[in-house]
Amino acid sequence: MSFPRYVDTDTYALRKLLRGTAEVINKHGRTRVNGATASERTFRQTHEVMAAFSRRLHRLGFFIEDTASLREKHIRAVVRSWYEDRIAAKTMQNQYSRLKIFSGWIGKTDIINRERKGISHYLPEAQADYFRVKAIAEQSKSWSGNGLDPKDILQQALAGDYRHGVMLSMGLTFGLRKKEMLLLKPWKADKGEYLEIADNVAKNGRYRIIPIEQGELGRAQRTALDLAKGMCKKAEPMGWPEMTLKQAENRYFYRMKQLGLTKANLGVTGHGSRAEYAEVTLMLEGVVPPTLGGDGARVSAHLREAAVTKVAQALGHNDTHTSGAYYGSFARPQA
What we know:
The chain is an all-alpha fold. Helices cover 50% and strands 2% of the residues. It has 13 helices and two strands, in the order H-H-H-H-H-H-H-H-E-E-H-H-H-H-H. The chain has helices at 12-28, 40-59, 72-84, 89-105, 150-160, 162-174, 178-183, 186-189, 215-231, 245-259, 272-284, 301-315, 320-327, and strands at residues 194-197, 208-211. The protein has a two-stranded antiparallel sheet with strand order 1-2. Helix 6 runs parallel beside helix 11 (272-284). The model has no long low-confidence stretch (mean pLDDT 87).
């Protein structure tokens, strides 16, 4: 992506602003703040966020044509319009963080609040915890934890779009992310006793292996992997081969919506398959996850730590705290 797409209603001033914004992102957007290379997804999303920001700015009556004209009042106006339009707090936080980075790229760090209050600086009327993103699950996000039968979901998926159904089978039994389901090459990834997630398949290129377990889960993993290998050619990924990654992601989301796997419909998303894997894996290790009523008190600290570490490594997390987003926290209130 070099420049954003234009629509017939875009004015000359808006098109000029969009071009200028895109040029800045093309120059700086492939490198993260820490110097690492940004993923294609991050690069593309930055383009999308800043194009949406530019269009919103013009809809609000600020018809600037150049990024050099950006002021603090523009940031404030857009942030307040997000809040008034009831955009999700997490989405607002994400877009705001990209605005902060962008302002640094254009040498105008003074136009955006960089104090600890962050985005809430512009919205004093918002409740204190409105923008506090919860990193620990308080209730189950898994399909079965919300009263759904994963087998029924997989059967419906396979009937509607076989390739999508096979991807979901792999996601459910190995805890894969959406991108991993689309890019994984099953013939290459199958190492007999484990599944290998490597190269551009893994998030941020972080290598990991996911063990193929014993018992029922292991049989389900092997069945899913054999289905995937039967569906794909030797060097072919699981995603629809005739599509780009973006097109495949769009079809994936469309198929998930067809299955009703949205927060608005069934109360869960495709990401619930990772939560399912995390909960099942903990239970196989003898630990009941907090999202299913466990508190860790019935097992030794050593066993619990080993179990959550295993889950974190399989999910591709650097620490066990991050994995708590899928199974909750074992910390108990002090008496």
